[in-house]
Amino acid sequence: MYDAPITPAAAAALALLAVPAVSSAGDTPADETIDQIIVVAHKDERSIREVAATVTVLSRGELNAELATSISDAFRYVPGVNYEGAGTRFGTAGINIRGIGGNRVAILVDGVPLADQFDTGSFSNATRDFIDAGLVQNIEVLHGPASALYGSSAIGGVVAVSTPDPSDIVRRGEFGADLLGTWRGSDNSAHSQVMAALGDDSFGFVAGYSRREGEQTESAAAPNNIDTRDSTRETTLLKFIADNRFGHTFRASALRQQGHTLSALNSMLGAGRYRSTTALEGDDRQHMDVVSLAYAFGSPESWLDSGVVRGYWEQTEIDQYTLDERAAARTPVSIDRLFSFDQEIRGIEMNLWKNFSGERIAHRVGIGIEYRDRRTEESRDGLSTDLATGAQTNVLLGEVFPLRDFPVSDTTETAAFFEDTMSVGENWTVIAALRADRYELSPDVDAMYLIDFPDYETTHLDESDISPKLGVIYSITPSVDAYVQYSHGFRAPPYSDANVSLDLPLFRVRAVPNPDLESESSDGFDVGLRWYGDRSTARISVFRTDYTNFIETKVNIGVDPVSGYTQFQSQNIENTTIEGIETGWQLRFGDTRQFMFDGSAFYARGDNEGTGNPVNSVGPAQAVVGFSWFSADETRELRLKTTLADAYDRIDESAGELFKPAGYAVFDLYFTQKLGNNLIARAGLQNLTDRTYWNWTDVRGLVPDDPMIPYLAQAGRTASVSLNMVW
What is the pTM of this model? Predict the structure, then answer.
């Protein structure tokens, strides 16, 4: 058992690197990251040595080798980047980077921003679980504020997902295919995918399909392993690429994702929390479409070195139905609830890049403009049926259904940015960037909203901000870089906080809009050191981010003297600071470099400067240690992964005692065997010691006696297998 704390010094001493592990057998192992190309940090292709920030990259080969099929699998071995849990019914809510999550982290697929997360309690949660590892080529994560390039939604960081191009599938000739089947014992899930591509370097087409069926994750702490959840997800990808010898490239892609989850919630909640409940069932559906058209142009011989124009459309529809039957209540009733969340995003952007060379200074100048329109519509409906008389009512707890928790909202974002990467002499690189944003919120008050909130005055917003960034990289030696970066971020008040509306007469509780909300802002500082050797790499970075005017949802502002209702309102809170350290390494050794020792570590602490209390979204210290062996002929691979987490008790408990999970050490083993030229078999054993443990992001905010806690523990010892055919 691992219950001893990991101190900041110990975390640093582990020195483990959050950079991509080597590719799986069948791919060419990557001995170094010195030539690694990053897109997310500058919006165009750059060497990692031109980036003054921490960037994590996960490749398709790496995800396959670790049998990843979901968002939680993808970030399992990346300390400081965590998925946020939304309970057993709703699964994964989103991604947390350095203690900041939710809609403060931008999630992109092929450059297209995805929908927001929104929830209203136990019966509704529009999550951001959009990433299907099956149709991913790579995932780039930019740690820390990134508003200088990505605007209001990136105050916490960026997760950029890329789907495969035809060239990623075609290995030889003009046709390629990739078939993968994976079974995971932790949730008895079966994942299958097929990708096929036609084309050459100038013309290509790729089609992909992925399907995942699974059950409730088996908890090592639950009193019984009842299957409470059955889920299905299907993802379809179509992509077309054409270019010519003059440097013009046209891209068109379409991605569709559909999910369906059935939850038998009464098996966990029927005793203790809802004593009168005899049936509690959920039926949740998700539908997402992403369409993108892009035109890239330019060449070194033209007036522009490169440029891209992209137009896109994204729509997400989420419907969640709940049957709540209370046959054991004093008045037996059956309650039907329906939550709907729809968001449509349309946008266009243009980015242009040009190189200039002087006597001592070389410039790579980028300019860009962007326009984005987002329409968001949410509603709740309810119907209560008396099981004895058959009488029905649409009034539940004093709420009259259907209703909206905020009016239909249109938001528009208009932005322009400038970036200049200056190479000064042989050793210095200076990166200066500036982005100007304008954010407009226009609520569309319809009849449904007015019926419940006729007297509420909705808030219209027109916010502007300037986001600068300045980074300096100094090459101490040909293999050692030091860097420092300052970046400013902002987040305009979202529609749900500016115009949140709730009225519960039965409990004399009311939530009211706040017309005086101010934009959140951040000032982030990163200082880092990177070393590249013939067989190894290492890095260490220290960061501090000061957040101002953080928006806290539904703050108790006291009793209204007129109505006598307790009022809640979204409010700006005192300054918050998050600071910490990220560090890591990768070492290849042996006569044929057949051994590798690698990993990563993260430690951070967050403080509310106004109250002096900790920030609960910042989790415990984490570390991952990996040891790998590769056969000389690159047909076999063995990986041992050790995940360490500190016991966590630095929690804000001003509102009451909270559950504190113990520290842990978990060991996972993966084996890859290449069978001939076209077939790869993989197997994994997770949690070898059968440890009972909890991830902080799954249980954050729960009281010690919450009946859900046993069901939120991670799985005990489980196995996974996959078979991959490529040609």
Answer: 0.91
